[in-house]
Amino acid sequence: MADSILVVTAHVGDFVWRCGGAMALHARRGVDVHLVCLSYGENGESNAAWQGGVQRDAVKALRRAEAQAAAAILGVASLDFHDLGDYPMPESADSIRRVSEALRRTRAQAVLTHPEHDPSNLDHCRTYEMVLRARMQAMAPGHGDDFVVPPQVLCFEPHQTELCGFKPNVLLDITEVWETKWQAMQAMPTQRNLWAYYERVALQRGAQAGRRGKSAGTRYGEAYQSIFPAVVAAFVG
């Protein structure tokens, strides 16, 4: 089975802004990238779509189409929508089970999701907790003999970093796939107000990564916080 990662987001737009570069970069290198969107973000993430008496189902269909287009640009291998609703997102034991099954099916070595704390959007907090519960279920032999080696969990950068207490310990150079991420961002016109914002974030993280890395060509980056310790045989050499 090919190497794989699993991305789990609260709303359909989240994956593009926060980890679209990581998704495109790994897909380009032959890693299977699997995506789960727990909601369409129809209630709180789709302001521009609520125009002229549009109906909820039409908003959800629009956001689904945007997510599918963006995912295709990024090279996503599989995409699953759970349609839980948002603002606020309800608890869902069924979604935990489905994410756990995705981990068992894909044998993902890493999961990308929201950080633990986000007081401005509790849907993100709930998604983080659901991912950790799904990870527990996936690694437990009592839930099936196809249990997995526990994957690393990497939290991507939230919209308001300081408010969330986000302290990145991984900076990813996404310079080579920035144009791909930018195209995927433009496939989300419902949230076009975020395009320039996340370009600035990528430039800021790229500048930081360039100072810490070996390449002077780093221009765009993404920030992540790993949840579990890395296991290494040595620090150098």
TrEMBL record:
GO terms for molecular function: hydrolase activity, acting on carbon-nitrogen (but not peptide) bonds, in linear amides. Transmembrane segments: none annotated. PANTHER family: BLR3841 PROTEIN (PTHR12993:SF29), N-ACETYLGLUCOSAMINYL-PHOSPHATIDYLINOSITOL DE-N-ACETYLASE-RELATED (PTHR12993). This is Uncharacterized proteins, LmbE homologs.
